[in-house]
Protein backbone atom coordinates (compact mmCIF):
# COMPACT_ATOMS: atom_id res chain seq x y z
CA UNK A 1 0.00 0.00 0.00
CA UNK A 2 1.14 3.55 -0.71
CA UNK A 3 -0.27 7.10 -0.57
CA UNK A 4 -2.18 8.68 -3.47
CA UNK A 5 0.50 10.90 -5.03
CA UNK A 6 -0.18 14.25 -6.71
CA UNK A 7 2.75 15.90 -8.47
CA UNK A 8 2.37 19.68 -8.56
CA UNK A 9 4.72 22.17 -10.21
CA UNK A 10 4.92 25.40 -12.17
CA UNK A 11 6.76 25.70 -15.46
CA UNK A 12 7.35 28.23 -18.21
CA UNK A 13 5.84 27.55 -21.62
CA UNK A 14 9.18 26.01 -22.62
CA UNK A 15 8.96 23.46 -19.81
CA UNK A 16 11.49 24.99 -17.38
CA UNK A 17 10.86 24.80 -13.63
CA UNK A 18 13.79 27.14 -12.89
CA UNK A 19 16.23 29.20 -14.94
CA UNK A 20 19.77 27.95 -15.52
CA UNK A 21 20.88 30.03 -12.49
CA UNK A 22 18.13 28.56 -10.27
CA UNK A 23 15.63 31.43 -10.28
CA UNK A 24 12.18 29.82 -9.91
CA UNK A 25 9.44 32.36 -9.21
CA UNK A 26 7.05 31.16 -11.90
CA UNK A 27 3.50 30.93 -10.50
CA UNK A 28 1.25 33.96 -10.28
CA UNK A 29 -0.37 34.89 -6.94
CA UNK A 30 -3.56 32.94 -7.71
CA UNK A 31 -1.61 29.79 -8.51
CA UNK A 32 0.42 30.04 -5.31
CA UNK A 33 -2.86 30.21 -3.37
CA UNK A 34 -4.07 27.09 -5.23
CA UNK A 35 -0.79 25.35 -4.33
CA UNK A 36 -1.20 26.19 -0.67
CA UNK A 37 -4.82 24.94 -0.69
CA UNK A 38 -3.43 21.68 -2.07
CA UNK A 39 -0.71 21.55 0.60
CA UNK A 40 -3.45 21.97 3.21
CA UNK A 41 -5.42 19.02 1.74
CA UNK A 42 -2.40 16.70 1.75
CA UNK A 43 -0.98 14.65 4.63
CA UNK A 44 2.60 15.02 3.39
CA UNK A 45 4.66 17.07 0.95
CA UNK A 46 7.85 15.67 -0.58
CA UNK A 47 10.84 17.19 -2.41
CA UNK A 48 14.32 16.05 -3.43
CA UNK A 49 17.52 17.27 -1.78
CA UNK A 50 18.28 19.29 -4.94
CA UNK A 51 15.25 21.45 -4.21
CA UNK A 52 16.22 21.89 -0.55
CA UNK A 53 19.73 22.98 -1.57
CA UNK A 54 18.46 25.33 -4.28
CA UNK A 55 15.48 26.94 -2.53
CA UNK A 56 15.67 26.21 1.22
CA UNK A 57 11.86 25.84 1.14
CA UNK A 58 9.54 25.93 4.16
CA UNK A 59 6.96 23.52 2.69
CA UNK A 60 4.27 24.78 5.06
CA UNK A 61 0.86 26.32 4.36
CA UNK A 62 1.71 30.01 4.57
CA UNK A 63 0.06 31.82 1.67
CA UNK A 64 -3.55 31.25 2.80
CA UNK A 65 -5.30 31.22 6.17
CA UNK A 66 -4.14 28.13 8.03
CA UNK A 67 -3.41 26.67 11.45
CA UNK A 68 -0.17 24.88 12.37
CA UNK A 69 -2.01 21.54 12.23
CA UNK A 70 -2.82 22.19 8.54
CA UNK A 71 0.87 21.81 7.70
CA UNK A 72 1.62 18.50 5.97
CA UNK A 73 4.50 16.27 7.10
CA UNK A 74 7.59 17.37 5.13
CA UNK A 75 9.62 14.65 3.44
CA UNK A 76 13.05 15.11 1.84
CA UNK A 77 14.56 12.44 -0.42
CA UNK A 78 18.24 12.74 0.46
CA UNK A 79 20.35 9.56 0.05
CA UNK A 80 23.56 11.01 1.52
CA UNK A 81 21.93 12.90 4.42
CA UNK A 82 23.06 16.25 2.99
CA UNK A 83 20.15 18.25 4.41
CA UNK A 84 21.77 21.16 6.29
CA UNK A 85 21.17 21.28 10.07
CA UNK A 86 19.67 24.77 9.70
CA UNK A 87 17.52 24.03 6.61
CA UNK A 88 14.08 25.62 7.02
CA UNK A 89 12.37 22.23 6.59
CA UNK A 90 13.92 21.14 9.90
CA UNK A 91 12.30 23.94 11.89
CA UNK A 92 9.46 23.18 14.30
CA UNK A 93 6.64 24.40 12.04
CA UNK A 94 5.75 20.85 10.95
CA UNK A 95 6.92 17.25 11.30
CA UNK A 96 9.83 16.35 9.01
CA UNK A 97 11.10 13.03 7.67
CA UNK A 98 14.45 12.79 5.89
CA UNK A 99 14.75 9.69 3.71
CA UNK A 100 18.35 8.49 3.33
CA UNK A 101 20.09 5.44 1.85
CA UNK A 102 21.56 2.59 3.94
CA UNK A 103 25.12 3.18 2.74
CA UNK A 104 25.25 6.45 4.67
CA UNK A 105 23.59 5.18 7.87
CA UNK A 106 26.71 4.58 10.00
CA UNK A 107 28.37 7.85 8.95
CA UNK A 108 25.17 9.76 9.74
CA UNK A 109 24.68 8.09 13.12
CA UNK A 110 28.12 9.20 14.27
CA UNK A 111 27.70 12.78 13.03
CA UNK A 112 26.67 15.91 14.92
CA UNK A 113 23.76 16.16 12.47
CA UNK A 114 22.26 12.97 13.96
CA UNK A 115 22.06 14.58 17.41
CA UNK A 116 20.85 17.90 16.01
CA UNK A 117 18.02 16.26 14.07
CA UNK A 118 17.07 14.14 17.09
CA UNK A 119 16.79 17.29 19.23
CA UNK A 120 14.62 18.94 16.56
CA UNK A 121 12.36 15.88 16.32
CA UNK A 122 13.35 15.25 12.69
CA UNK A 123 12.85 11.57 11.78
CA UNK A 124 15.33 9.79 9.50
CA UNK A 125 14.15 6.78 7.45
CA UNK A 126 16.70 4.55 5.70
CA UNK A 127 16.00 2.47 2.58
CA UNK A 128 17.86 1.40 -0.55
CA UNK A 129 21.60 0.75 -0.85
CA UNK A 130 23.18 3.86 -2.37
CA UNK A 131 19.98 5.69 -3.28
CA UNK A 132 16.64 6.00 -1.51
CA UNK A 133 14.22 3.20 -2.48
CA UNK A 134 11.18 5.30 -3.38
CA UNK A 135 8.70 2.39 -3.26
CA UNK A 136 9.89 1.43 0.24
CA UNK A 137 9.61 5.08 1.28
CA UNK A 138 6.03 5.28 0.00
CA UNK A 139 5.09 2.08 1.91
CA UNK A 140 6.67 3.46 5.09
CA UNK A 141 4.82 6.77 4.78
CA UNK A 142 1.54 4.95 4.21
CA UNK A 143 2.16 2.86 7.36
CA UNK A 144 2.71 6.16 9.19
CA UNK A 145 -0.77 7.32 8.16
CA UNK A 146 0.04 9.32 5.01
CA UNK A 147 -2.81 8.74 2.56
CA UNK A 148 -2.36 11.72 0.25
CA UNK A 149 1.09 13.00 -0.68
CA UNK A 150 2.00 16.07 -2.70
CA UNK A 151 5.22 15.76 -4.67
CA UNK A 152 6.75 19.23 -5.26
CA UNK A 153 9.82 18.40 -7.32
CA UNK A 154 12.36 18.87 -8.46
CA UNK A 155 13.18 17.67 -11.94
CA UNK A 156 15.24 14.58 -10.99
CA UNK A 157 12.90 13.24 -8.32
CA UNK A 158 9.86 13.86 -10.55
CA UNK A 159 11.30 11.56 -13.21
CA UNK A 160 12.31 8.81 -10.75
CA UNK A 161 8.87 8.89 -9.16
CA UNK A 162 6.95 8.68 -12.43
CA UNK A 163 9.28 6.01 -13.84
CA UNK A 164 8.70 3.93 -10.71
CA UNK A 165 4.92 4.17 -11.23
CA UNK A 166 4.47 6.16 -8.01
CA UNK A 167 2.53 9.19 -9.34
CA UNK A 168 -1.25 9.11 -9.72
CA UNK A 169 -2.03 12.66 -10.78
CA UNK A 170 -0.18 15.68 -12.18
CA UNK A 171 -1.22 19.30 -11.70
CA UNK A 172 0.90 21.69 -13.71
CA UNK A 173 0.78 25.47 -13.87
CA UNK A 174 2.01 26.80 -17.22
CA UNK A 175 3.10 30.42 -16.98
CA UNK A 176 3.15 32.57 -20.12
CA UNK A 177 6.93 32.98 -20.10
CA UNK A 178 9.89 31.58 -22.03
CA UNK A 179 13.38 31.44 -20.49
CA UNK A 180 15.30 28.93 -22.61
CA UNK A 181 18.65 27.60 -21.47
CA UNK A 182 19.74 24.05 -22.29
CA UNK A 183 20.89 23.60 -18.70
CA UNK A 184 17.74 24.94 -17.06
CA UNK A 185 15.81 22.25 -15.11
CA UNK A 186 12.71 20.99 -16.86
CA UNK A 187 9.56 19.46 -15.37
CA UNK A 188 11.08 15.96 -15.72
CA UNK A 189 14.83 15.45 -16.13
CA UNK A 190 16.55 12.29 -14.83
CA UNK A 191 17.88 9.73 -17.32
CA UNK A 192 14.78 9.87 -19.55
CA UNK A 193 13.51 7.22 -21.97
CA UNK A 194 15.09 6.54 -25.37
CA UNK A 195 11.89 5.58 -27.16
CA UNK A 196 8.64 7.52 -27.40
CA UNK A 197 6.87 4.15 -27.07
CA UNK A 198 8.18 3.98 -23.50
CA UNK A 199 6.73 7.40 -22.55
CA UNK A 200 4.47 7.48 -19.51
CA UNK A 201 0.92 7.96 -20.81
CA UNK A 202 -1.38 10.59 -19.33
CA UNK A 203 -5.03 11.57 -19.66
CA UNK A 204 -6.05 15.24 -19.43
CA UNK A 205 -8.91 15.50 -16.94
CA UNK A 206 -9.15 19.27 -16.33
CA UNK A 207 -7.87 22.57 -17.74
CA UNK A 208 -8.56 26.17 -16.79
CA UNK A 209 -7.05 29.66 -16.71
CA UNK A 210 -6.02 31.05 -13.34
CA UNK A 211 -4.91 34.68 -13.41
CA UNK A 212 -2.30 34.82 -16.16
CA UNK A 213 -1.52 31.09 -15.86
CA UNK A 214 -2.98 27.88 -17.31
CA UNK A 215 -3.62 24.92 -15.00
CA UNK A 216 -3.73 21.41 -16.43
CA UNK A 217 -4.63 18.27 -14.47
CA UNK A 218 -3.68 14.81 -15.74
CA UNK A 219 -4.25 11.27 -14.49
CA UNK A 220 -1.34 8.91 -15.02
CA UNK A 221 -2.73 5.89 -16.91
N1 LIG B 1 8.81 25.42 -10.45
C1 LIG B 1 8.52 24.45 -9.59
O1 LIG B 1 7.34 24.08 -9.43
C2 LIG B 1 9.60 23.78 -8.84
C3 LIG B 1 10.93 24.00 -9.16
N2 LIG B 1 11.91 23.31 -8.50
C4 LIG B 1 13.31 23.53 -8.91
O2 LIG B 1 13.91 22.28 -9.22
C5 LIG B 1 15.30 22.39 -9.01
C6 LIG B 1 15.81 21.17 -8.25
O3 LIG B 1 15.66 20.02 -9.07
P1 LIG B 1 16.80 18.89 -9.05
O4 LIG B 1 18.13 19.54 -9.01
O5 LIG B 1 16.51 17.97 -10.15
O6 LIG B 1 16.65 18.22 -7.62
P2 LIG B 1 15.54 17.31 -6.92
O7 LIG B 1 14.82 18.17 -5.95
O8 LIG B 1 14.77 16.54 -7.91
O9 LIG B 1 16.45 16.33 -6.06
C7 LIG B 1 17.19 15.35 -6.74
C8 LIG B 1 18.05 14.58 -5.78
O10 LIG B 1 17.25 13.73 -4.96
C9 LIG B 1 18.08 12.68 -4.51
N3 LIG B 1 17.47 11.36 -4.62
C10 LIG B 1 17.57 10.39 -3.67
N4 LIG B 1 16.99 9.29 -4.07
C11 LIG B 1 16.51 9.52 -5.28
C12 LIG B 1 15.83 8.70 -6.19
N5 LIG B 1 15.50 7.43 -5.90
N6 LIG B 1 15.50 9.23 -7.35
C13 LIG B 1 15.80 10.52 -7.65
N7 LIG B 1 16.46 11.35 -6.82
C14 LIG B 1 16.82 10.83 -5.63
C15 LIG B 1 19.33 12.69 -5.40
O11 LIG B 1 20.40 13.20 -4.63
P3 LIG B 1 21.22 12.15 -3.70
O12 LIG B 1 21.79 11.13 -4.63
O13 LIG B 1 22.21 12.98 -2.99
O14 LIG B 1 20.21 11.55 -2.81
C16 LIG B 1 18.99 13.65 -6.48
O15 LIG B 1 20.11 14.31 -7.01
C17 LIG B 1 15.52 23.68 -8.24
O16 LIG B 1 16.08 24.65 -9.11
C18 LIG B 1 14.13 24.10 -7.81
O17 LIG B 1 13.96 25.50 -7.73
C19 LIG B 1 11.63 22.42 -7.51
C20 LIG B 1 10.33 22.20 -7.15
C21 LIG B 1 9.22 22.84 -7.79
N1 LIG C 1 3.96 25.79 -7.53
C1 LIG C 1 5.14 26.45 -7.52
N2 LIG C 1 5.28 27.57 -8.24
C2 LIG C 1 6.46 28.18 -8.28
O1 LIG C 1 6.59 29.28 -9.04
C3 LIG C 1 7.54 27.70 -7.56
N3 LIG C 1 8.74 28.33 -7.59
C4 LIG C 1 7.33 26.54 -6.77
N4 LIG C 1 8.34 26.07 -6.04
C5 LIG C 1 8.18 25.10 -5.01
O2 LIG C 1 7.81 25.72 -3.78
C6 LIG C 1 8.89 25.62 -2.86
C7 LIG C 1 8.96 26.84 -1.97
O3 LIG C 1 8.05 26.64 -0.93
P1 LIG C 1 7.91 27.62 0.33
O4 LIG C 1 7.17 28.85 -0.12
O5 LIG C 1 9.27 27.96 0.84
O6 LIG C 1 7.10 26.86 1.32
C8 LIG C 1 10.11 25.42 -3.72
O7 LIG C 1 11.18 24.81 -3.07
C9 LIG C 1 9.51 24.47 -4.77
O8 LIG C 1 9.32 23.17 -4.26
N5 LIG C 1 6.13 25.93 -6.78
Automatic annotation (TrEMBL):
Domain Bacterial bifunctional deaminase-reductase C-terminal: 3-216
Keywords: NADP, Oxidoreductase, Riboflavin biosynthesis
InterPro entries xrefs: DHFR-like_dom_sf (IPR024072), Rib_reduct_arc (IPR006401), RibD_C (IPR011549), RibDG_C (IPR002734), Riboflavin_Biosynth_HTPR (IPR050765)
Name of a matching Pfam family: RibD_C
Molecular-function GO terms, alphabetical: 5-amino-6-(5-phosphoribosylamino)uracil reductase activity; NADP binding
Metabolic or biological pathway: Cofactor biosynthesis; riboflavin biosynthesis
EC number of the protein: 1.1.1.302
Catalysed conversion reaction: 2,5-diamino-6-(1-D-ribitylamino)pyrimidin-4(3H)-one 5'-phosphate + NAD(+) = 2,5-diamino-6-(1-D-ribosylamino)pyrimidin-4(3H)-one 5'-phosphate + NADH + H(+); 2,5-diamino-6-(1-D-ribitylamino)pyrimidin-4(3H)-one 5'-phosphate + NADP(+) = 2,5-diamino-6-(1-D-ribosylamino)pyrimidin-4(3H)-one 5'-phosphate + NADPH + H(+)
One of the protein's GO biological processes: riboflavin biosynthetic process
Family: Belongs to the HTP reductase family.
Subunit structure: Homodimer.
PANTHER family from the UniProt entry: 2,5-DIAMINO-6-RIBOSYLAMINO-4(3H)-PYRIMIDINONE 5'-PHOSPHATE REDUCTASE, DIHYDROFOLATE REDUCTASE FAMILY PROTEIN (AFU_ORTHOLOGUE AFUA_8G06820)
Protein name per UniProt: 2,5-diamino-6-(ribosylamino)-4(3H)-pyrimidinone 5'-phosphate reductase
Organism field: Methanobrevibacter thaueri
Lineage, broadest ranks: Archaea, Methanobacteriati, Methanobacteriota, Methanomada group, Methanobacteria
Name of the gene: ribD2
Amino acid sequence: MRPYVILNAAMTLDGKIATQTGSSNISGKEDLERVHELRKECDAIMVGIGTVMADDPRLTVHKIDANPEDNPVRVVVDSKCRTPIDARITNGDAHTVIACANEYKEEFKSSEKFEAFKEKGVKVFFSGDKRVDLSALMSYLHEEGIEKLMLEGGATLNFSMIKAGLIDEIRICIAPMVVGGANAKTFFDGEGFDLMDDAIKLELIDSYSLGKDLILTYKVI
